[in-house]
Amino acid sequence: MENLNSTRRSIGQVIFRHTPGSLISIEEWGVYGRVAAIKGSPDTDVDKNILCKKVRWFVSKWKEESEGKVRGYDVDVMEPDSLVAIRPEGKVLWDFIPKMLLECINPQCKIIVSSDDPSFSGQCPRCQSKLKQFRYVWFHNCGILLPFLPITQVNCPKHGRKYLYLNDTGRFRSSTWRCRECTYERGLGMLPCIDEVCRKNRQGKGDYLRGSVWNDPWVYFTQVVTFVNLKDSQIRPVIESNLKEELLLSAYTGSIKAGENNLTIKAVNDGIEKINCVKCGKAIPVTARFCSECGTPQPLAANIGQENKKQLLPDSLVTEDSELATFAILRDLQRTLSLKDEKRRHEEDKNVEKAQSLLASQDSFARIGVSDVLMINDFPLTYAAVGYTRFQSKPPNWLRAYPPLSANDTKIPIYTNCITTEAWMIQLSARYILEWLETNNLLNDLAEKPNIKEMDESDSKIWLISFLADETEDKITMQLQHTIHELIHSLSHIFLQSLAIESGLDIASFGELLLPNVLSFIIYAGESDVGGLSASFNQGLSQIADSVSEQMRSCKFDPSCSEDDDGACVGCLHLPRGCVEFNEKLSRAYAFGGKTKSLTVKDILVGFLDLKNK
Q1: Averaged pLDDT for residues 550-573
Q2: What percent of the chain is modeled with pLDDT above 70?
Q3: Residue 138 and residue 157: Cα distance in Å, rounded?
Q4: 48-91 residue pLDDT tens
Q5: According to the model, what pLDDT value does residue 274 have?
Q6: Please, how many CA atoms are within 13 Å of residue 272, restricted to the half-sphere of its CB?
């Protein structure tokens, strides 16, 4: 790396645009180069075990959806020590593409010159004018990148390749190579990919390189995995408590106040004295089986303080990286606020006007199936660049890992950036989901159908969390699990779009994380856009609820979007970045009703957001 040039970029620019293999503009030189390496240091803020799990999940999913098109990763032997988290320092090392092609700046000449020509002098050999980099490159979805050299067949009978120039019409199909000294002309032609692994994978089928301007967005896509980066000190007290099941469920059902580390304090003290009623919110003794205010049964009372406790949750839900644990700890962070809790607080403080405003907001969200909205003011997020693709940002294109940091190193570098930003965590109502499923006749084939009429919100939550965690091979159960996942993903995109509109921020500044096992999704803001979500939570809750109920009901590309694209396209639900599912497995039909072709449910009679208005 001694001969590499260097330039500087922000950490965000490095993570999302300038990882190894990308092309970068060097403004001070007036050229573009190929990023060869990133200067950085080991990122000790990243838990290597969680990082490994997230990378393994992402790569395995990509491998499955692309029929094995992954380079540099072997998920079967991937261990935490197989990877190394590197936090970029902002210094980018770059070089020129080998056999770089240049072009004469004289518009009457414009002949091309290869930098590896033995007679190369740095000037045009025909008119002695200055040269500039040729702006086109060849690339392939396997990851290969080459200079835009003429194919072998392009060769003037009189002058060879000495005076070739590009007759650029703006389209590769109609552009041609011409000789400046005679009338020779030939089309650009097609160049097969020369990568050996790619050729073997094609099994003899023709697959050709694509030409493009070097900075077109499809020439390089960084593949970034995002995840919640909670610290051990935040997770361990709850997970290692003797009351971990009860603590996690109390957060999930909302029977313990959000924020102020209430859950962690009770875990450290190894005891819970009082909880809030799961319905009315009144503080009651932890062993109370019924609320003294509203008479609602309390789901945790039978377990807390009893010698012969029954197991409430499957083991998979009480691990440190489970969705339930993530939900509970995020809800417990010092500055996390809950819509329900904020309404109760203002009622207790006799702030009638604010309490009534929050009650109206709570009712508006309840009508569209939302149980609670949580404002996470200190949302711990990690961006992890795990590799890159070309041509498209999703399977079935090849995913390529970054090269090791040195010739003697075997670890795969993952370029990471840990930030603290703000987020909304929206939890859907479990009973509302069950009613919606029943209305759409989606529970009829279940072997053990829930008795919804006898279930309140807490009963529904406990039933659904166990149902979604069931790792069965039963087809009916799996289809229903997929349905709920697609529903939550679709609603996440609609909420994100509404938040972007109401907050006035660019939609590309938001991202999503899904927690379907706890009926929740998270919408977070970029590091430079903190303030928009908190302002919406403090001042615009009702507007968001109203916007969600109508947002995306139609698409500017309808009827094509609804009929041909499953009700999700660039005109409505697709996000420019930040989607965890590559803008797939979602549809407006889940929110407003309609038909789909490739999703789990083909005919949705009543949309989720229209259930109470049917």
Answers
A1: 92
A2: 93
A3: 25
A4: 999 999 999 999 999 999 988 999 999 989 999 999 999 999 99
A5: 59
A6: 34
User: At 452, phi and psi to the nearest 5?
Assistant: -60, -35
**Alpha-carbon distance 88 to 507, whole Å?**
26
In angstroms, the CA 586 to CA 591 distance is 10
Neighbours of 367 (CB within 10 A): 15
Contact 414, 385 (CB under 8 A): yes
- Give the position of tokens 């349905």: 483
Average pLDDT on 259-277 reads 77
Distance CA 338, CA 333 (A): 11
What single letter denotes the amino acid at residue 303?
Answer: N
Q: How far apart are CA 586 and CA 598, in angstroms?
A: 10
Residue 220 · residue 21 · CB < 8 Å: yes
Q: Are 482 and 600 in contact (CB under 8 A)?
A: yes
Distance CA 391, CA 25 (A): 19
Mention every residue, 6+ apart, whose C-beta is less than 8 A from residue 89. Answer: 39, 40, 41
In which region does residue 593 sit, left (phi positive, over 0), alpha (psi from -120 to 50) or beta (all else)? left
> Where is 206: in which H helix or E strand?
none
Query: For residue 542, what are the contacts with CB-CB under 8 A and spacing of at least 6?
Result: 357, 360, 361, 364
Q: Which residues, in sequence order, are CB contacts of 46 under 8 Å at separation 6+? A: 85, 229, 382, 384, 416, 418
Using pLDDT thresholds of 50, 70 and 90, give the confidence band for residue 614.
low
> Residue 603 belongs to what H/E stretch?
strand 603-604
Among 416, 455, 419, 241, which Cα is nearest to 332's? Answer: 241
How high is the pLDDT of residue 506? 87
Q: What is the pLDDT of residue 275?
A: 65
Pairing of the two strands 520-525 and 83-95: unpaired
* pLDDT digit string, tens, across residues 429-474: 999 999 999 999 999 988 889 999 999 999 999 999 999 998 888 8
Average pLDDT rounded to a whole number, residues 188-209: 80
Structure tokens at 531: 């303030």
> What is the pairing mode between strands 83-95 and 412-428?
parallel
Residue type, 82: S
